[in-house]
UniProtKB/TrEMBL annotation:
GO biological process terms, semicolon-separated: immune response
Protein name (record): Interferon-induced protein 44-like
Matching InterPro entries: P-loop_NTPase
Transmembrane portions of the chain: none
Length: 306
């Protein structure tokens, strides 16, 4: 077929109508719309592993994940841990099934071990995993709780209350957060496998974003489950930036939540595999490097504002 179409093109100087129609139907573009170097895993891993905030009073760069129930927030934390340690690890409890009720119920900081035994320390990059945003009022996490978390007011282990956001006299409320209790990057997580986002969840997400913008906190987004949503990507992860459907999905998501396209990253979380895979790692690292860069810029900015 390719030979036939080449022949047609050479003969007539343009592509045959059949070939043009076939190209239009194809789920993939000829060229990726975003460049990603699939051979740079080690260099990118080193970049993240060697990152350290410059400011003395900040031990950790803190990333906060939020988004709808079952979007893959906890799975992303597990995936990051696995990528950093070079083997499968599961520090954050992820759900084995998808439901409309959030599986994560507590506010927890996830740190990643560096080294073992006596030499064990932690990477200066930590994640907080939020309970999912659910449809309707008094369901799922309150946007107000996320806002307080952004400023560092939620204590470790705080149990989310679906009926009301935390009050200042709650033992889980931290009235005097330190510089590294606060959030340095806010990441919205969304599954590519969700047909359409619910309007009440979208409203909650917008309100969180507005607060983060008021606080000057950098924001980005990740689209998970790209393997489940698009069979061409499932077969070969390297087609990720050639998928027409995924690009459209990301564009729609970008306009719905107001996060620019260049701050949205598609990822596939480790979910069913038992061994590590370089392509999966490369996509995760691509998002992770931006979290480190954006978070570090914010840390530097707050330092110079003081
Ligand atoms: N195939 C595939 N499955 C995924 C991916 N990310 C997450 N999953 C699956 O989706 C389900 C939900 O993932 P979780 O990580 O628990 O989602 P969550 O956002 O933490 O959910 P809540 O805590 O309930 O709000 C789990 O069964 C995961 O294995 C992905 O990228 N690909
Ligand atoms: Mg979770």
């Amino acid at each position: 077929m390719a030979q036939q179409s080449d022949f047609f093109k050479r003969l007539f100087g343009f592509e045959s109508p059949e070939h043009t129609a076939q190209k239009a139907e194809s789920p993939t573009l000829d060229e990726p719309w975003r460049e990603l170097d699939w051979g740079e895993k080690q260099k990118n891993l080193k970049y993240v592993q060697e990152y350290k905030p410059e400011q003395d009073d900040i031990r950790y760069l803190r990333v906060l994940l939020y988004g709808p129930v079952g979007a893959g927030k906890s799975s992303f934390i597990n995936s990051v841990s696995s990528v950093l340690r070079g083997r499968m690890t599961i520090p954050a409890l992820a759900s084995a099934t998808t439901s409309d009720k959030s599986f994560t119920k507590k506010y927890e900081t996830h740190k990643f071990n560096k080294g073992r035994g006596r030499a064990k320390t932690f990477y200066p990059l930590v994640f907080n995993d939020f309970m999912g945003l659910e449809d309707g009022t008094n369901r799922g996490v309150h946007a107000d709780d996320i806002k307080l978390a952004l400023e560092g007011h939620l204590k470790e282990g705080y149990e989310f209350n679906q009926v009301a956001p935390i009050s200042q006299d709650d033992p889980g409320y931290n009235p005097t957060p330190s510089a590294d209790d606060r959030v340095h990057v806010l990441v919205c997580v969304m599954s590519a496998n969700t047909p359409q986002m619910n309007s009440s969840v979208l409203e909650k997400m917008k309100s969180v974003r507005e607060t983060a913008s008021d606080l000057g906190i950098p924001q980005m987004a990740m689209m998970t489950c790209i393997d489940e949503a698009y069979c061409e990507i499932d077969k070969d992860l390297r087609t990720v930036y050639k998928s027409k459907y995924l690009r459209k999905k990301m564009k729609d998501f970008s306009s719905a939540v107001g996060i620019p396209m260049n701050c949205i990253f598609p990822v596939k979380n480790y979910s069913e595999e038992i061994d590590m895979n370089d392509d999966v790692d490369t996509l995760i690292l691509s998002a992770l490097m931006k979290m480190v860069d954006f978070g570090d810029d914010f840390i530097e900015k707050t330092k110079s504002d003081m």
